[in-house]
Amino acid sequence: MSNDKIETQEKKVEYLELIYDLIFVYLIGRNNSILQYVEDGFVPWSVFLSYILCMLAIIQIWNFTTFYINLYGRNGIRDHVFLFVNMFLLYHMADGIHTGWQSRFYQFCIAWALILANIGLQHIIEMRYHRDEPRVLEMLRRKSGIIMVEVLLVLVHMFVFSRTGISIAYVPILFGIAATALSGKVNMLVPVDFPHLSERAMLYVVFTFGEMVISITGYFENGIEPTSLYFSTMAFLIVAGLFLSYEVVYNRIIDRNMTTNGTGYMMIHVFLIFALNNISVALEFMRNDGVALLPKVMFITGSFVVYFICLFLLGLFSKKCCRFNRKFRMMIILSGAGFFALMFVFMRNMYMNIAISVIFVMAVFLILFKKSREAGENEGLEL
Questions:
Q1: Is 101:50 a contact under the CB 8 Å cutoff?
Q2: How buried is 292 (Cβ within 10 angstroms: 0-12 exposed, 13-18 middle, 19+ buried)?
Q3: Strand partners, 318
Q4: Which three-class secondary structure state does DSSP give residue 38?
């Protein structure tokens, strides 16, 4: 066995990481449920805003934890203790997610602040192991500073709400997203273990698809009755097509051996996972007669567009043979524009609406698959 093989040994995803991620599946389902509250065919703006902010806060926590484990995790006692503490706090955070969130406001925010403080403390403790590594030390200082400032902003949010009744939860969330994105240059000093990071992101996407699989079970309630059979088949094909598209990108297009700081890759996944959660809700809206046609169509169309934009942005991390050229991008843009137009043209016909969704999703999958096959053949690989 050569020394090169020993030096490039891949970091494995541990069982504890998978258990930790499963808590987020529960949080996703809990957060999705608040959109079932409908008034006059529309989800109230305040409820929808709470849904968005909760979802971003949840994914951000997962993102911070994933980066820490990827760079510094040792699967030791300290890692176990910190993760189990956060799992316990996440249950309390989830308990605060419902339409009457004001009654559990302090429970949600205290759990949120403690989880972030827990992650920030892990970064601070880690500094003592890297005193002779200035680049790593600088990155740890920057990341712990970002997280601890966000903790303070959560506390400010609590204070403002207690005094005015106004929620400014968007402030800590947007700060965390912006600060993480802007710290990309500092993060470049310490490249991540990209095979491990990409696998963690993939597994969270798979868990999110699991929530989507559960969300479409309502389509199967009436068995083989013709209308039920039609819509259940279409809903299943949508989920299958979305999953296969991600599978092609992950397995055939992404270069998991590249050297990267991982910031861009994970930021794209934050919004990709967010879009998948929205699609789960949109599929439930499609069969809910209490939801008006306009929000139904807007929600499912917008969710698909965001999902596929994120999917194609992952092409920035592709193998050289799989780069998306101008012709490919134009094909996708035109397909998306056609899908968007047809969805609104046939807005009042749910039979056509869901069929158009299936055709679009499967068409994108086939375009991606064809691209990956061509790239593999050009490189002399069997894909």
A1: yes
A2: middle
A3: 254
A4: coil
Half-sphere exposure for 291 (CA within 13 Å, toward CB): 22
Backbone dihedral angles phi then psi of residue 73, each to the nearest 5 degrees: -65, 135
Low-confidence ranges of the chain (pLDDT < 50): 1-8, 381-383
294 C-beta neighbours (distance < 10 Å), count: 12
**Euclidean distance between CA atoms 58 and 108, whole angstroms:** 11
Q: What is the pTM of this model?
A: 0.84
Alpha-carbon distance 23 to 38, whole Å?
27
Measured from the Cβ of residue 370, the count of other Cβ atoms closer than 10 Å reads 12
Beta-carbon count within 10 A of 227 CB: 10
**Eight-class DSSP state of 346:** T
Residue 12 DSSP label: P
How many C-beta neighbours within 10 Å does residue 7 have?
7
3-class DSSP state for residue 254? strand
What digits encode the pLDDT tens for the residues 38-71? 777 777 888 888 888 888 899 899 999 999 998 8
Kindly report the three-state secondary structure assignment for every residue of 291-318: CCHHHHHHHHHHHHHHHHHHHHHHHHHE
Task: Give start-end residues of each CATH 1.20.1410 domain in the chain.
Answer: 192-383
Q: CATH classification of 192-383 is 3.40.1130, yes or no?
A: no
Which pLDDT belongs to residue 7?
41
Contact partners, residue 310, CB within 8 Å, separation at least 6: 268, 269, 271, 272, 275
Which amino acid is located at 49 in the chain? L
What is the structure's pLDDT at 187?
58
Percentage of residues of the chain with pLDDT beyond 90:
34
Give the SS3 label for residue 335. helix
Q: To which residue do tokens 């959109």 refer?
A: 35
Instruction: Output the six-digit token pair for 186.
Output: 């500092």
Residue 112: closest CA among 163, 153, 165, 67: 153
